[in-house]
Specification:
about 350 residues, two-stranded antiparallel sheet, alpha+beta
Length: about 350
């Protein structure tokens, strides 16, 4: 937006300083002239007369003093305004670099804890968060592009092979294309859900975590039985306000993750809900192989597949399960805690405001 360029803030402050100093000098001259006039009283009848020659003597001196005050006010005001606005120039330079796309620059202003220092610290914090979010989004976009490209490339390969080999079994081709297409659809829906939760574009309503946990367990019970996993739900009512659909997806992802990443047979998954102070808690605990301590903090990263977390088969997943959980928790102003069990497995604890 084009705007008419006005006076700079430094020049405005300079003129303000000089004008105030000039006004103070003029008032001082008038006061001095009145005092001098009163020191020469005229006893003759009639209105008092000015001392002879007082104006002629004091006028040029007063004009010289006012001119000096004006010059001194302009010069001193310009210097003082420049020194006072120097921190603002650093802040402006950092903001300009950020607008050009450079988010790594920091002001790191030292000195007294004044308004400029506070503004600089706030801007540094904002730049740090923006840089972190932009980096995360860029990495997510690159990973999403790679993940979406994989099923498309597989489909293209299958079609090329079938076109070159007319004897290839048609039913087998359809089945493989169906599996690849299903995976692509699941990935796209997961990306859309992740984007929706990040934008917080949902309607809030009362939700009971205990009922949601029972629904998620009922849905995933056949999967647990096929894998020989014992699935149990316990606890009491835990009410929150949020999106029933997203909260259900959050709990479902946690339970499914606990079932899939479990022992080959004889494992267990326990879901517990209940209030805890001013929060409602859902905790999902499962058995499984021991997890390295450095692996746990990375489990919520999109498309993360550690060597001990890779899974294949019916629920190969798209690498967004816990990332979606973390996003939904953030959208509901809650917290997600992941902790490795000493005997193996994972404990996932979600706290949402009641």
């Amino acid at each position: 937006m084009d705007r008419r360029r006005g006076l700079s803030l430094r020049l405005k402050l300079t003129l303000s300083y000089a004008g105030f100093l000039l006004l103070a000098g003029a008032l001082l001259m008038v006061l001095l002239w009145v005092l001098l006039a009163r020191s020469f009283p005229d006893r003759a009848p009639g209105p008092p007369r000015r001392p002879p020659g007082l104006l002629a003597v004091s006028g040029p001196a007063a004009a010289t003093a006012v001119a000096f005050l004006l010059f001194f006010g302009l010069l001193g005001g310009w210097v003082l305004a420049g020194r006072m606005l120097a921190p603002l120039n650093r802040i402006t330079d950092a903001a300009r670099r950020a607008s050009d796309g450079s988010l790594s620059h920091r002001i790191r202003m030292d000195g007294p804890d004044d308004e400029f220092r506070e503004l600089a610290d706030v801007l540094d914090t904002m730049l740090e968060r923006l840089e972190s979010q932009v980096t995360e989004q860029q990495r997510f976009a690159a990973n999403a592009s790679h993940e979406l490209r994989t099923p498309l490339a597989i489909s293209q390969t299958l079609l090329d092979v079938a076109r070159k080999d007319p004897t290839w079994d048609r039913d087998e081709l359809i089945e493989r294309l169906h599996v690849v297409n299903t995976r692509a659809i699941d990935l796209t829906e997961a990306l859309l859900l992740l984007s929706r939760s990040d934008r917080r574009s949902f309607t809030r309503e009362p939700v009971d975590l205990s009922l949601v946990a029972e629904e998620a367990a009922e849905t995933l019970l056949p999967l647990a039985e096929r894998r020989g996993i014992k699935l149990g739900v316990a606890g009491e009512a835990a009410r929150v306000t949020g999106s029933a659909e997203l909260v259900l997806r959050m709990v479902t992802n946690l339970v499914q993750n606990a079932i899939v990443h479990n022992l080959p047979a004889g494992g267990s998954v326990t879901v517990h809900t209940g209030p805890d102070g001013d929060a409602s808690v859902v905790r999902v605990e499962n058995t499984g192989p021991p997890l390295p301590p450095d692996l746990v903090p990375t489990l919520t990263e999109p498309f993360h597949r550690g060597t001990k977390r890779t899974r294949t088969g019916e629920h190969a997943g798209v690498g967004l399960g816990l990332a979606i959980v973390a996003s939904i928790v953030r959208a509901h102003d809650g917290t997600l805690e992941l902790a490795a069990r000493p005997e193996g497995g994972l404990v996932a604890t979600v706290r949402l405001p009641r």
